[in-house]
Amino acid sequence: MAIMTVIEAVREAMREEMRRDASVFILGEDVGRRGGVFLATQGFIDEFGEQRVIDTPLAEAAIAGVAVGAAMAGMRPIAEVQFGDFMFPVFNQIVGEAARIRYGTNGKLHVPMVVRSPYGGHVRGGLFHSQSPEAYFAHTPGLKVVTPATPYDAKGLLKAAIRSNDPVVFLEHKRTYRAVRGEVPDGDYVVPIGVADIKRAGDAATIVTYGLTLHYSLQAAEVLAGEGVEVEVVDLRTVSPIDRETVLESVRKTSRALVVHEDNLSLGVGAEVSAIIAEHAFDSLDAPVMRVAGPDIPAMPFAPTLEAAYMPTADKIEAALRRLLEY
Amino acid sequence: MAVDNASIMTQTMNDLPSGLNAEDLVDIYANMVLIRTLDERIWAMNRQGKAAIVASSQGHEAAQLASVWALRHHAKDYFCFTYYRDLAVTVSQGLTPTEALLGFLAKEGEPMSGARQFPQHGAIPDRKVINISNVVATHISHAVGWALAAKMRGEPTVVAAYMGDGATSQGEVHEAMNFASVMKLPVVFIVENNKYAISVPQHRQMNVTEVSSRAVGYGMPGVTVDGTDVVASYAACAEAVERAARGEGPSLVELDVERYLPHTSDDDDSVYRAKEEIDEARKRDPLAKLKALLQSAGLMTDERDAELRESARREVDAATDAAEAAPFPPDDDVLERVFEEVG
Ligand SMILES: Cc1ncc(C[n+]2csc(CCOP(=O)(O)OP(=O)(O)O)c2C)c(N)n1
Ligand SMILES: [Mg+2]
């Protein structure tokens, strides 16, 4: 068992999968000699060569589209999109194309590819280096959307994503890359896509979250635990498909639900989770489902005050928990 | 368009490009007759209210068939990433008239998409044809990716990426061509330039007379040839296929063709295209031109031509009956094959 950061876990997962399976390869901007701007592929070009660690032209639509074509041909490409905010040039290929290929060929072809991208803010990334684009992709049947928050989950889920026979959008919160450390078992293991994880058990209320706000939620839960109130924290880990059973089981136990995410509030993952709870656990609820999320503004601003105002921090989550518990 | 329409008239059977012989031309002609007959039938069935949407290949047949024959003769293996107007590619690659008609009528058993998609869309990998998308030009990078996979695995596959003139305005085409050339991938970009994208004529689409002139910007060869001339089209495609097969990278082959019918069955071309222009275009009919060439070499007679047309009509009649008799797909199939089935 080693202690690693999230970025190290991501790197381990890819390295092991590339050693295991010759059809796995990486393409993206600066992934070769530079090892990626966040160093996810550091050292890969020396081990695997430039045939399998491809520095592409600066052209995201082509990176994604070429990956789609190679995946249809039986390879397992991992396409790196340098920042989550640059997913929009890729959108056409992932949402419009990759997601529909199994359906649109009636199962004749499928697309075993992963699009990896560092996403999220609270890193002073400003309007174009902070975005959480998961909801756009999660809305699309045919795609899986994975958002790990810990090194253990990042490694196990990325392996599952690489082995998936359907396209996976794999979003790595860039603030967790070096800020979050944790135990990672040596060698091979897989965390299944579509299975949530209870990161803290409790009975007073349930927080449903994922990504960086998992850690802020755990901080808030810790504060309440000091007062003798135990809050359960469910880490979705995968935002599409959502693990309804784990969410509902927890809410049926605690009777109170707070949904937390960094992406802006409206029409996102939190809305879907709230609807699932309202539809299937209404009789168990002692309070309305509440949400803490980024405000509905176009993107996360740059100035530290503005960024802090955007971010669903531990303080804001704690305050919402108190409202929920007092209801 | 810098094409010498008279050149075909000077074409003789004596100067065929290497790889193409007289029997091929006879074979291509028989394919043309079948495909034209089928295409006309499909259009008629649209007018009868039976086929919901049709994009006709009429006027493009020589270009499409020549490219297929060039791939067959000059690549050890190949794949065609087609678009909606490529009936002559799909049928010559083995999509039967019945299967094609199952697609146009959206019937059960349609092999490309199970009638989930518009006609001619989906994939028949066993027949080396993929046409995933209705979104213009998204497939060009897929073709490049397929070629990348082949190259990585050391396979001898050459990939043909077909598109129209309008498609070349898409940004993704630029990205894909540049990518393929940088990586020296075995791709032939085939532009079927019929000088219209629905109603928009070429001069409003681009400020160049030849799409192929852009090839220089990607560091690859580009040529424009008369796409109603099988022999010229074959020669240009064969050279590009050979370059790809040698590992030297992609090429752009622009085939100057005609679109005889409106963009699709939903279009009315009379509001943007003069009848005289279409009449003029009809003088370049690829069937008439190939027939004349074969006749000049004593390889075709009016009687033989009539026989071919009659046998094509019978085949298409039988296909029509079979497709009309087929049921629609069962409605409970709608939820299937979104993801891999596990367990
Ligand atoms: C991205 C996109 N934009 C618009 C359309 C609608 N559309 C379908 S075909 C077409 C014209 C294409 O013309 P061209 O590429 O020249 O091919 P042609 O039909 O002439 O063979 C348009 C605008 C589309 N399918 N996809
Ligand atoms: Mg056109």
Walk me through what this model shows.
The complex is a heterodimer of chains A (327) and B (343). Chain A contains 13 helices and 14 strands. With 327 residues, chain A is of the alpha/beta class. Chain A has a 7-stranded mixed β-sheet with strand order 3-2-4-5-7-6-12, with helices on both faces. In chain A, strands 9-11-10-13-14 form a 5-stranded mixed β-sheet, sandwiched between helices. In chain A, strand 10, helix 9 and strand 11 form a beta-alpha-beta unit. In chain A, helix 3 runs parallel beside helix 4 and helix 9 crosses helix 13. With 343 residues, chain B is an alpha/beta fold. Chain B has a single domain, classed as Rossmann fold (3-Layer(aba) Sandwich). Chain B is 43% helix and 12% strand. Chain B has a 7-stranded mixed β-sheet with strand order 2-3-1-4-5-9-8, with helices on both faces. In chain B, strands 6-7 form a two-stranded antiparallel sheet. The longest helix of chain B has 26 residues. The N and C termini of chain B lie far apart (58 Å). The interface between A and B is large, with 43 and 41 residues.
Primary descriptors:
heterodimer; A: 327 residues; alpha/beta; Rossmann fold; 2 domains; seven-stranded mixed beta sheet; five-stranded mixed beta sheet; 13 helices; 20% strand; B: 343 residues; two-stranded antiparallel ribbon; globular; disordered N terminus; binds thiamine diphosphate; binds magnesium ion
- Major β-sheet profile of chain B: 7 strands, mixed
Give a short account of the largest sheet of chain A: 7 strands, mixed
CATH architecture of the largest domain in chain A: 3-Layer(aba) Sandwich
Uncertain spans of chain A: none
